[in-house]
Amino acid sequence: MTCDGEDATHAPRPEVTELRPAAGAPGRAAPGAPDPQQLPRDRSQAILEAAKQIGALLKKKGHPFALAGSVAVYAHGGSRHLQHDADFAVLPEDADAVAATLREAGLPVRTPPEDWLVKTTCRGQDVDIIFQLAHQPVTKDMLARAQCLPVDSVIMPVLSPTDLIHSLISAFSEHYCDFGSVLPVARAVREKVDWNEVRATCGGEPMPAAFLFLLERLNVIEPREGQS
């Protein structure tokens, strides 16, 4: 899905006069160090700023994509306490073109040992460009289901809640089953998810099935129809 239109704007805030230390005074940044006045308020804001810049860049170049991961959860109304990076889903056949766009913008591109993503760094934050979610390639249908939502102040395609939950719980296995990190996500978006679709696509696997059972027992979701 593509998102047309200008970035959202906010009403200007009145200027506040601040006292700043004189040159050489204690607390003043050393030459070459980042100006504290220009730093984001916190780590979550820094990740948001990186996601906004990458999203705006991909939009400008016309690459099909969708925001994923914890920033996508935030866009759907979840917690603003973001995880360690920003994630974007792109088509496998577009991976090289997206990497070229990032390089043209002056961003570094790294190819990790995993063969399902490339990595970049933006505003000091890690950004993953993913072309395979939970062992399944990103598809045109998946991107078509993405919803255009404001991410802080930039409108961009965001994975649908159903695809987002599917990608998270399909990744569970005997070697990775951190239910605790996904439970708050499921609570945040539960009313927006097609749980029957999630059950049909991944509920037959042991770990996803166990997580769905946990959600039922905690009254996060309704039990499967016909199940008492």
UniProtKB/TrEMBL annotation:
Q: Give positions of region: Disordered.
A: 1-40
Q: Which Gene3D superfamilies match?
A: 3.30.460.40
Q: Where is the composition biased (Low complexity)?
A: 20-32
SUPFAM superfamilies linked to this entry: Nucleotidyltransferase
Please list the residue ranges that the record marks as compositionally biased, kind Basic and acidic residues: 7-18
Q: Which segments of the protein form a coiled coil according to its record? A: none
Please identify the protein, giving its name as recorded.
Answer: Nucleotidyltransferase
Report the source organism: Streptomyces bungoensis
